[in-house]
Amino acid sequence: MRILVLHGVNLNMFGRRDPAHYGNATLAQIDEALADLGRELGAAVESFQTNHEGVMVERIHKAADEDVQAVVINAGAWTHYSHAIADALAILEIPVVEVHMSNVHARENFRHHSVLSSVCTGSICGFGPSSYLLGLRAALDAAVACTAGKVLI
Does 100 qualify as catalytic in the annotation? Predict the structure, then answer.
């Protein structure tokens, strides 16, 4: 099983950016925890981060042609306005799980709406770095269900 984890704009600054909302974990530490959990669960995890929207869209397009069984994405601020990323994700025929470290629903009004949610299998937010780990577990469960032709309850 191969899972692609996508990190969006400004997420390379985890550990330095607004610790009250995002904590002190760095992106490298989050990626390491994801790789460790992936190995434990029998999945290869590839992480990718960019601050360039077009590069993110191109990485999503590339995933459509790869042997990837699911995607976990934290698009950062793009979550709230990037119809280009939403359109790219909609091309994928695999589960996509949206994650956020902070509880976006308890923050500024503009963060309450995601243009990605309608093309995602599900969303997880508010659990700090554990949001990613929960997202990975959810993506794996959804991918297994898809390959078995089952619907998640």
Answer: yes
pLDDT digit string, tens, across residues 27-71 = 999 999 999 999 999 999 999 999 999 999 999 999 999 999 999
Choose, from 7, 21, 80, 100, the residue flagged as catalytic.
Answer: 100
Residue 18 is predicted with a pLDDT of 73
Active site residue 132: no
8 Å CB contact between 2 and 67: yes
Locate 62 and state its tokens: 């590339």
Choose the catalytic residue: 7, 21, 22, 105.
22
pLDDT tens readout for residues 96-153: 999 998 877 766 676 667 899 999 999 999 999 999 999 999 999 999 998 776 665 4
Torsion from C-alpha of 44, 77, 15, 107, nearest 10 degrees: -120
Contact 86, 116 (CB under 8 A): yes
